[in-house]
Amino acid sequence: MFAALITVGAYIKIPVPVCPFTLQFLFTTLAGIILDAKNGTIAVSVYVLLGLAGLPVFTGGGGIGYVFQPTFGYLIGFIAGSFVTGTIVDKGDLSILRLLAGGFAGLMTVYAFGMAYYWAVCRFYIGEPIGIWQLFLYCFILAVPGDICLCILSAILGKRLIPAIKRSYKIA
């Protein structure tokens, strides 16, 4: 289900230069929050593998050649970010602060992978190096405000959804 939600999130996008803003991050973060570190990571990995297998689930389509896209690092970051988020959320109470901490740690993980990969592909594969300032501007400053909002939204949704999900499993 989360692989499908992430796919839908890939197609809800706001054009921003270089890296489009999508709702993928919301659903990959919720996968870590709701499913836990292991299962969230598996769900996001399934999404990435489906895209690499050729299904058009990424913002720009799909296929193995997608690994040569500068933004592919964000997809790798989604996997790692879901794991980091789930690990932090699973370690204690379900407070909004813990959910926010997990979301923000996952966000930093996604950006670390995404920006490093973007820089490397531009420099070594495409042959058009991007300066650190341009990388920081286009791949962080322009995109991070929306993702901060998604961190807050994922914490609020997680705080409400997890108890409801637990109640539904006790009844069934």
Q: How are the SSEs ordered, and which strands pair?
A:
Elements: H1 2-11, E1 13-14, E2 21-22, H2 24-35, H3 37-52, H4 72-90, H5 96-126, H6 132-141, H7 144-171
Antiparallel strand pairs: 1-2
Proportion of residues in β-strands: under 5%
Spatial strand order of the main sheet = 1-2
Distance between the termini: 19 Å
CATH topology: Arp2/3 complex 21 kDa subunit ARPC3
- By CATH reckoning, the class would read Mainly Alpha
Unreliable stretches, pLDDT < 50, 5 or more residues? none
Short structural summary:
The chain has 172 residues and is an all-alpha fold. The protein is built from 7 helices and 2 strands.
Can you walk through the features of this model?
- With 172 residues, the chain is mainly alpha-helical.
- It has a single domain, classed as Arp2/3 complex 21 kDa subunit ARPC3, CATH 1.10.1760.20.
- 73% of the residues lie in helices and 2% in strands.
- It has helices at residues 2-11, 24-35, 37-52, 72-90, 96-126, 132-141, 144-171, and strands spanning 13-14, 21-22.
- It has a two-stranded antiparallel sheet.
- Helix 2 (24-35) runs antiparallel to helix 3 (37-52), helix 2 packs parallel to helix 4 (72-90) and helix 3 (37-52) runs antiparallel to helix 4.
- The protein is globular and about 55 Å long.
- The protein starts with a helix and ends with a helix.
- The mean pLDDT is 93.
